[in-house]
Amino acid sequence: MTAQDLPVIAAVDGSAHGWEALDWAVEEAVRRGLPLLVVHVRPQGRRAEEEQGLREAEELLAQAVLRASRAAPGLPTSTLAPLDFPSAALVSLSRDASTVVVGSRGLGGFRSLMIGSNSLARASMAQCPVVVVHTGRTDESETEAADAFPDVVVGVAADDSGGEVLDHAFEAAASRPGARLRLVHGWTMFSSMLSGGPVFDSRAAADAADRALAELTAGRRGTYPGVEVVREPVRGSASRTLVTASATAALTVVGRRRGGESLGLGLSPVAQTTVTHALGPVAVVPT
Fold first, then answer.
1. Interacting residues of 278 by C-beta distance below 8 A, sequence separation 6+
2. What would the pLDDT profile of 202-247 be if each residue is shown by its tens digit?
3. Angle, vertex CA 87, rays to CA 85 and CA 92, nearest 5
4. What are the backbone angles phi and psi of residue 254, rounded to the nearest 5°?
5. CA 93 – CA 160 distance, rounded (Å)
6. At a CB cut-off of 8 Å and minimum separation 6, what does 123 contact?
7. How does pLDDT run across 93-138, given as a tens digit for each residue?
8. CA atoms within 13 A of residue 282's CA, in its CB half-sphere
9. ∠ CA 78-120-96 to the nearest 5 degrees?
10. Reported pTM
């Protein structure tokens, strides 16, 4: 299977958040011309419980396939119901996926948490990009704004020289007609990107950050000539700007370090805050 054939995985559990994740995954698979794999992970238990769980999983997956087929007739769709812990199963499956899409919370999640621990674990450890679909958009004006201005917003760190985060963001913007790409980078007086050392003039620090963003994107402008790029250097942490922008963005993109094997490892404070408090879908891209 080539990279162009790797499926979009949708994790479903029967919750409203899971169904929204499925809907988002269907749209993503259609947009990118990829197959869809719907996964429901069955918990381990006694034999009778596992048999009951299998019947429930088959019924749930049948509902998911019907929902997907109604939204996108002809979309190649398959299902899987592994017997495992949810996070472990999806992290393993992520090795052969283009994207894993999960809801921000599932059944049994604490209402006080903005994002469930399973979703955070998947975003922290998966081998491919993970999209966490939040359901915070309840205001009609926000939804209309998102439709009218389908921005893709990306948090750009000072060490994004590898380019995976920017590549993902540019591709996401290019696949959405009319979408702008907003590049958000947080700078301080003592650490602005490629500034050559401490900068004691705020205007100079902001200008250095803006120049660095321009340099990071210069090579991609030719590859994606139709994408309008907006550079947004922000003094201090970028998390507030990213969370606010997520309310009306088609997608917010953040990066994480590869190699995390425990909850939260590899997510920077900005990325974790964004994933936790966003009001729209967030893609976490391993770098």
1. 132, 134, 136, 242, 243, 246, 252
2. 787 788 788 888 888 888 888 999 999 999 888 878 899 999 999 9
3. 95
4. -135, 165
5. 26
6. 102, 130, 132, 256, 267, 275, 284
7. 999 999 999 988 654 433 333 344 566 667 778 899 999 998 655 4
8. 34
9. 35
10. 0.85
